[in-house]
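Q: Study each token:
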Amino acid sequence: MAVLDAHRALLFGLAALTAAVYLFSTLLYRLFFSPLAKIPGPWLTRISTIPEVNALKKNRRAQWVTDLFDQYPDSVAVRTSPSSVSFNHPDAVREIYGHGKTADGFGKSSWYDSFSTTGESLFSTRSKKRHAMKRQMVAHGFSAQSLQLFEPYVDLTLAKFMGQMDKFATTGEGFDIYFWFELFTMDLMGELALGNNFGVLDAGQPARYSTLVEQSQRFANYSGLLPFGKYNVKVLSWVPLFNIQKLYRSRLEYLDYARVALEKRFQDNQRQVSGNGKARQDIMQRFIEAQDPETGHRMDFNELRAETSSLMVAGASTGSVTMNWMTYYLCKNPPVKATIISDLEAMFPDNLDGRDPLPYTRLNKLSLLEHAETECLRLHPPIGYAMPRDTPAQGSVICGVYVPGGVAVGVPAASIGRNAAVYPDPHRWDPERWVGNRNTTDLATMKTCFLGFGHGSRQCIGRNVANQFVLKMIAQLLLRYDIQLENADLILGMKEFTIQKPDQKYKVVLRPRRE
């Protein structure tokens, strides 16, 4: 027995020694001998994701990466974790995200696995083949023709929103317009993705769903920083910390909410089918009807549920925050606001009070209004950190920097959007920089580095839908009301949750432009 115990003790000691040697060797390699060791960044990022997790916890992950570029101004790349590198150069955008790059091996990293829920959505799928198939299946759902079919739902929801704004304009009291933008986008995406609104505009109160969306996405972001790939969500769900468990429960509740809402979408024939016997023409109907032209494959319920969850995040959260920044900057820049109003009055002389819907087919021809949106998204991209892509197995040279295979690389939208080499006077809001008749910068490079909707073949497929309701909202507000900040000296900063939001609440005052 004593010999057996001694033998067991020896084996245990050897195992412990082997583990210690392996750990020490790994740390030594990461610190000094890995090709990534030459890329600047905090020394702790060479061996741990702790700095990035702390930045996420403090709601400043995107700003943390931008600060790293400021600390190393002579470098186009910074180390953000043992296996991830961020770049801040136009060439990196082309080399990582450019069309055809996924064929070269720059596929989505394991970070996206954390955003797969009941199935892979168009956003979360890492498979190039499945993404191409999904995108081909649903592309017609975001065409110009489809936008016209969706527009009645936008106008219906806008009418409810403006009815609430009329009440504030009557009293002249300051109010939180961003709060109402969130209600608007939540109801609108309910109409487009689920066949019914949430009733939040009528109630003047947010739905439980909106909180669940943000908390679920936060859980996914934490999961994505773990090193276990597709098992990240499961592993994190085991962590016995109160905040983590709270976020995980929100994720489960969020998915169940989507299930119930989608089931109702199928069961409520009165809403699904219009009076002429045709199916309700919204985004979800387009997804339901989507079919792979080669195989005839259609999305099953779990796939549709995953797409629904993704649509609610992409449409509701990003749209509302973009309208917020447009309102803020237009109020801070009266000459630009006055020019846009003048353009609107010239285009809609029979609708000077903004009482009637503004058709998007005409509205999208107002270049200054669209440039104002683009400039807001440059300064405040909803997702500010890098959308990670894995380098090919053989490694890759990006902007002259060698990165070995299997490393997550990307360009943070918040960093490149304020890169002074791309955008002169980068912190200044200047919609006219997008006109392209200036000699101070290269418009093509500016457009390449604009990542407000992503870049390349994996950019946001719902870009046109978002542009439609954002521009219609801002245009009708400008025609209908005189909008002023309650505090004219207000300076808004950013605070990052899942998306980048204002760092403080603020109020606006509305007055009717025409009695």
